[in-house]
Amino acid sequence: MNSVTSAGRTSVDIGASAKLELVDKFCYLGNMLSADGDADAAVEARIRIGWNKFRQLVPLLNNNDVSLIMRGRLYSSCVRSSMLHGSDTWPVKKRKLGGTSASRDQNGQVDV
Fold this sequence. Notes:
By secondary structure, the protein is of the alpha+beta class. It has helices at 40-61, 68-84, 94-97; strands spanning 2-6, 9-15, 18-21, 25-28, 31-34, 103-104, 110-111. The strands form three sheets. A three-stranded antiparallel β-sheet has the order 1-2-3, with no helix packed on it. The longest helix has 22 residues, at 40-61. The N and C termini lie far apart (47 Å).
């Protein structure tokens, strides 16, 4: 494979007159991947997806004919789950934790 730079773009020649463009981030199976392995792009994309889902459900979430318990379940199952999808694979770096204090209980669960 030969790396070729032309007009500010970098591409990889894989032979048979085919070239692949190198990019900083891309979407793969609904998850944003970045070249540096950071999860910032994935987190931003998931927040955007969560807000879009919330906006779709606002008429139901503001409807007083729907019980509060049902609205909570709707939010949890649709909005929160869409935001947290794939979050277990996001890398967390010490600099991102900042002042967050977390401890583990006897079962290994994280208490924040």
